[in-house]
Amino acid sequence: MDERLHRRRGAGLSFLMGGDGEPLLLLHGVPGSSQSWQKVGIKVASRFRVIIPDLMGFGASDAPAEDFYVEEQAKAVRDLLNYLQISSCYLGGHDFGAAVAVMLMRLYPEIKVRGLVLSAANLFTDTRFPLSMRLAHMPGLNRLYSWSMAGNRLGLRMFYESATQNKDEARWGEFRRHLSGGSIKLTRQVLQRSLANGQAAHAEIEAMLPQISCPTLLLWGDEDPFVAVHVGERLRATLPDALLKVYAYTGHFVPEERPIESAEDIVLRFTDQPLIFNA
Known about the structure:
Structural class: alpha/beta
CATH architecture of the domain at 6-129 and 201-270: 3-Layer(aba) Sandwich
CATH class of the domain at 6-129 and 201-270: Alpha Beta
Helix content: 40-55%
Shape: globular
CATH topology of the domain at 6-129 and 201-270: Rossmann fold
CATH superfamily of the domain at 6-129 and 201-270: Alpha/Beta hydrolase fold, catalytic domain
Order of helices and strands: EEEHEHEHEHHHHHEHEHH
Strand content: 15-25%
Number of strands: 8
Low-confidence stretches: none
Largest sheet: 8 strands, mixed
C-alpha cells in the first residue's frame, strides 16, 4: 500500500492526499499550512484516506476573493469535500483550523462527521488570554500587536520561539516553510480579526459544542503559552464524548511537536487496533 501523501489541487485549494480507508480531513492553524499535519498524515495513512488542505490564502492555495475568516474558510473546505465526492469523514483541526472544523459542522450538517480531533483550540468566548494578548484587545493596540507578532518574519520567528517547546521535532527550518508572503499577510489579518471581534465568531462555535455527539479527541501541550491546558479540560467537560490527551514538554504546535503521539492517539481513538509503524 502506498502511504505517501501527494500534492493535488481542487476547488481552489492545494492539498496533500494519500492512504486508504475512511477519509480523515485535517485543517491547519495560523500560522501554518498543510505541512503542519503532514507528519501525522503520513503515519496514519495506513488506516485513513488522509486529506490535508492549505486553507484559503495559505500555502499553495488560492487567495480568498473576499472574506478570509472562519465561515468562508469552512465554505472552501466544504467545496473541496464536494469536489472529492466525500460526504462522510473524520475531521480534525489545530488552532484556527479547529474553529473552521466546528464551523463546518455547524453550517453543513449534511456532512457526516464520524469523529473529531481538536488541538490547541480556543473555542470559547470568555477564555482568559496572557496579559500581552489581553492588552492587544485595547483600541489602538490591536493593529500594532498583530503586525509585531505575526506581520513579519522576525515577529513570527519570535512567535515560534515562544510557542514551541519541542524544537528537536518542530524545527524552525521546517516551520518557516509556512511563511510565504501571502500567508504572513493572512496570518496577521486572522490574528487582528480574532483580537478585534473573535468573540462574535466564537459565540456560534461555542453554542455548537454541546451538540457534537461524535467521539472527540483533544490534543494539548502542557506548556502551551496561548491556550492553556485548562481550556482543553473545559472542552472535555463541554463536549458529550471527549477524550483529552496532554503531552509533556509540548507547546502550542502539537501536530508538529508530537506527530508520533498524535498519530497513535488518533488511530486508537477511532479504530479498534493500535498503530504499528513500519521499521
